[in-house]
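Action item from last week, closing it out:
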Amino acid sequence: MKHLDRAIKYVRDNRTWSEAEEAVALERINNYRCDINFASPSIATEIADLMEEYGRDNNLDECWWLSEANEDDIFFSL
């Protein structure tokens, strides 16, 4: 399993936003055709923070994951 796959699992296992918050974000994405940063800045920030936390725990460079995925990619992979 690659680091990105393990990091997505880490986000899935450690996220703190509720199903209701996720539903609102998905509705906004659908209605406004926007990204997660606009639909729910708090979810987008938590995704980035958890990805960075995974990176620190695994001795990866800061922002290591941005060359492979962004917050939207992670959100829709969960």
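Closing note: The chain has a mean pLDDT of 97.
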